Structures are given as structure tokens and as C-alpha cells.
TrEMBL record:
Signal peptide (residue range): none
Gene source species: Candidatus Viadribacter manganicus
Descriptive protein name: Alkylphosphonate utilization protein
Similarity annotation: Belongs to the YjdM family.
Pfam families listed in its UniProt record: YjdM, Zn_Ribbon_YjdM
InterPro entries assigned: YjdM (IPR004624), YjdM_C (IPR013988), YjdM_N (IPR013987)
């Protein structure tokens, strides 16, 4: 017996198949199996070297980053501990010592 993926809309595990569609009985969301596979592949976030990142990792900046709205610059080699991965354009949410909360792009960091 194969296990079906949870609903992408409400995360319910009660999904069922109806022909080529997967259906959630709780929220009535319908999707195809290929959509579920592509969504899982899109959620993988990689650093500048192609290493997969996870919540709680420590990363290092590989480029000087100018911060909009501030005269400060984040320098190459700055370590960022305990990152949190989020969706969107800036996919890393973190707190940088001496600077504060930041959102970073994964293309400017490498896993430490």
C-alpha cells in the first residue's frame, strides 16, 4: 500500500485518490500527484555551493552585503547561527550578532 502525500493547503493526512487527482476531504482541495512532487522539490533550499540547508544550521556569508536603509555592511565571513528557512525571495530568516534580525538569500551564504 502506498502512502499518499498530505494536503498542501491544510496539511491533512486524510487525502484520497479519485482517478488522476488527489483530494482532501477536510478542505476540498484537489491536486495531481505531479504537482505534489514538484512542490516537494521546490522546498529544498541550497547554499551557494549546492549543499542542502536545514533549520538550525550555521552559515557564513561569502560576499559583503550592503543593507538597505542602513549605513552598515555585513562583511564576508560573518557567521550566522541557528538559521530558519522560509519561503519567498529571501529564504533565510536569522538574527546576526551586533546587527539584529535579517532576511538573507541562500545564494550569498555557505554552510559552515
Amino acid at each position: 500500500m502506498t502512502t499518499l502525500p498530505p494536503c498542501p493547503a491544510c496539511s491533512s493526512s486524510l487525502t484520497y485518490e479519485d482517478g488522476p487527482l488527489l483530494i482532501c476531504p477536510e478542505c476540498a482541495h484537489e491536486w495531481t500527484a505531479s504537482e505534489a512532487e514538484s512542490a516537494e522539490a521546490a522546498e529544498i533550499i541550497r547554499d551557494a555551493n549546492g549543499v542542502v540547508l536545514a533549520d538550525g544550521d550555521t552559515v557564513t556569508l561569502i560576499k559583503d552585503l550592503k543593507v538597505k536603509g542602513s549605513s552598515q555592511t555585513l562583511k564576508v565571513g560573518t557567521r550566522v547561527k541557528n538559521i530558519r528557512l522560509v519561503g519567498g525571495d529571501h529564504d533565510i530568516d536569522c538574527r546576526i550578532d551586533g546587527f539584529g534580525a535579517m532576511k538573507l538569500k541562500s545564494e550569498f551564504v555557505r554552510k559552515a
